[in-house]
Design goal:
This protein has 170 residues and is an alpha+beta fold. It has five helices and eight strands, in the order βααβββαβααβββ. Strands 1, 2, 3, 4, 5, 6, 7 and 8 form an eight-stranded mixed sheet that branches. The termini are far apart.
């Protein structure tokens, strides 16, 4: 099985919606992708394809960490989806790796995620790095961060402010 990971194109929109709808068994995450894209918040959006068929998708969007001394720019990894028929085959890991690499190349310094702790820890995310940053969704060990620049989160304490489309999940 050869998986191609590439940036999304306008022709991919319906397939991306379908992948997110299928993976989450609901419309909310699929609609979130469209709202983030339409609102201009997306910094990286990648698809995974096998034989030309899109089987996975990952999206990174801008967010701000509000601290007592100002704001810190960061990105959120949300959502990441793989068709149920293609899960547990390494596709999600490939998407995360390629997405984080694309964010790093664009100069982003911090990525946060609220997701499955075992999976995202394997990808390099840490709940400890996110422990001094609050988010409106809670999450405990599922709330994690990754430094794309070593040490960038040192001394950062605050609250993330997600783009408006995430308000649907509060």
């Amino acid at each position: 099985m050869s998986v191609e990971v590439r940036h999304e194109t306008p022709e991919d929109r319906q397939s991306i919606w379908t992948v997110n709808r299928s993976a989450f068994d609901a419309d909310a995450e699929a609609d979130l992708v469209d709202a983030l894209r339409d609102g201009g918040f997306v910094v990286v959006s990648l698809v995974a394809a096998i034989g030309g068929k899109i089987v996975g998708h990952i999206l990174f969007s801008r967010l701000t960490i509000i601290t007592s001394v100002g704001t810190v720019e960061a990105v959120s990894l949300a959502p990441m989806a793989v068709l149920p028929s293609h899960q547990r085959q390494g596709i999600g890991s490939k998407l995360v790796e390629a997405g984080v690499d694309a964010c790093r190349k664009q100069g982003h310094r911090i990525v946060v995620v609220l997701g499955h702790p075992d999976f995202y820890r394997r990808c390099g995310f840490s709940a400890d790095l996110a422990s001094s940053i609050e988010n409106p969704f809670g999450g405990g060990e599922a709330w994690m961060a990754m430094e794309l620049v070593p040490g960038v989160l040192e001394g950062i304490e605050g609250q993330v402010e997600y783009p408006a489309p995430f308000n649907a999940f509060e």
